Amino acid sequence: SHTIRNEMETTVLASLLLLVAASARPTAMRVRAQARHPAISRLISRPFGASLSRCRVAPVPRTARRTAVGAVKQQFDSFDEMLKQFDLPVLVDFYADWCGPCKLMETELEIVQTALRDKIQIVKIDTEKHANIAQQHKVYGLPTMALFKNGEQVWRFEGAMRADNLVAELEAELKKM
């Protein structure tokens, strides 16, 4: 009886964690309402992303080197400073190294960069290293792509997308500007 109960609790815990991971924007209130076991409640007692506010990015001297997407890797003092650096609209790719769909998007973004080289600038932001920026821009799923014009977000997409579809979406958005 005790073994069966432990197995059931483990199954419930695993199911709940899968539910939290699968949900696009879980909130502590919604998840708490689904939790019936004290151990589960302790695991999810804080809102998703609450720990991100404690992350800080130390100022790094400006450096430059070549990376994927034919881009130059640069360091900026702030996200806003980075957006002001470019005259073109900026497509920001929020990614993480462990994210499979993010890795798939690397090749797609190379195609997009080639197709729209005179129309947009592509910037990649590692959400693990810059969690505060991801939190500020409410990045809940990866990859997330956001198009900024004059420092304002004008378009956003969460998930992977084929290059031809992404080019079409971006061109449609650029025509509105």
Automatic annotation (TrEMBL):
InterPro entries: Thioredoxin-like_sf (IPR036249), Thioredoxin_CS (IPR017937), Thioredoxin_domain (IPR013766). The keyword Cell membrane does not apply. Coiled coil: none annotated. It holds the Pfam family Thioredoxin. It comes from the Eukaryota. GO terms for molecular function: protein-disulfide reductase activity. Residues 1-24 form the signal peptide. Keywords: Disulfide bond, Electron transport, Redox-active center, Signal, Transport. This is Thioredoxin domain-containing protein. GO terms for cellular component: cytoplasm. PANTHER family: GEO12009P1, THIOREDOXIN Y1, CHLOROPLASTIC. Residues 54-175 form the Thioredoxin domain.
